[in-house]
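Example complex used in Figure S2.
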Amino acid sequence: MAIADLANPSRFLRFANRTIPWLGGLTVVAFAFGINQAMVAPDDYQQGATVKIMFLHVPGAWLGMLGWGVMTIAALGTLVWRHPLADVTAKAAAPIGASFTLMCLVTGSLWGRPMWGTYWVWDARLTSVLLLFLLYLGVIALWRTVEDPSRAARAAAILTLVGAIDIPIIKFSVDWWNTLHQPASVMRLGAPTIDPSILIPLFIMVGAFTLAFATLLLAAMRNEILRRRVRTLRLMQASAVS
Amino acid sequence: MQTASHLDFIVAAYAVAGAVVGGLTAWVMFDYRAQLRKLADLEKRGFTRRSAHGRSEPALEQAKEDA
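Predicted assembly (309 residues):
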């Protein structure tokens, strides 16, 4: 099947139905392996066992930004090509991205309390991630408020494109401003500053969470396509009654 | 750095992550079943997606076929 064929909702449904069980199974295996590796990873010489929170916090941050990235590409699909599957992708990705961003914020707070002595500071990194979470809520609210899906898609797409400015701000906030949050230690020029004994489990957990994200996104897109079919039939029902 | 002294923070973080992944999984599964139920209900009432175009294949059949 060519990638372009998936642009057809019925073909996409068939693809999703075939793929979701395999992706789900792979996700479970990856999580089992990743959590095992995370548990046997050594404590950090400074942060002790709390470094185990990093195996959740970093994937949460990555997927929060990945979700907005997916929505940004979908927003271009909505505004430029007016493709319905782009709307479906954007709507399905929003609650998933929001959930992982919330996970990033909460696990970050739970890591910050023992390490920094506080759950929260208004530094640039934390604030820009909180802004991302609020942007997600704004997009979800738009989808729920505007009843016509194509109008909602356009409004959400514009907000998504504007909100995309926050992604590089999140990434470079630790370089541009003095923050309590540590500078980049994985995605940076030069080698990661983390020891391989901790870095490898981190990569495995990032992979497991990314598989979970892909599975959930496919499933949520399938649901959204079915929801639109239900809506079409209800409109037919309403017009038949009147 | 004592592992035990921060165990509560570590356990809480893993509980939050479990709740997020578990909650999202439950949401997509229940939503999927709800949409299939709604399609079945509409089909019972005689409204099918293909019927709008003069074809006979019911929407639920198609959804099941897709599944």
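Chain B is about 70% helix and 0% strand. Helices of chain B lie at 7-44, 59-66.
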